[in-house]
Amino acid sequence: MDGHDSEDSKQSTADMTAFVQNLLHQMQTRFQTMSDSIITKIDDMGGRINELEQSINDLRAEMGVEGTPPPAVKDEPKTPASSS
């Protein structure tokens, strides 16, 4: 084994390291872009929900049912308690 083989090995390792670092940077950039996009869509949806809620409240006020409580929202079906 001569010094030339050692140099090739070092260069190959450096090339592979640079390749992996570049790949990781690209993945991080893409992940950040997707993350920003998701957050923007969630914010937009939150705004739309607020607008819908306001529209519902406006309609309720027009109909004169302002004093009635809003319908209950069901999160999960309740299971009856088992008796021992």
UniProtKB/TrEMBL annotation:
Coiled coil: none
Superkingdom of source: Eukaryota
Annotated region (Disordered), positions in chain: 62-84
Pfam families according to UniProt: HSBP1 (PF06825)
Keywords recorded for this protein, A-Z: Stress response
Family: Belongs to the HSBP1 family.
Protein name listed in UniProt: Heat shock factor-binding protein 1
Organism, as annotated: Camelina sativa
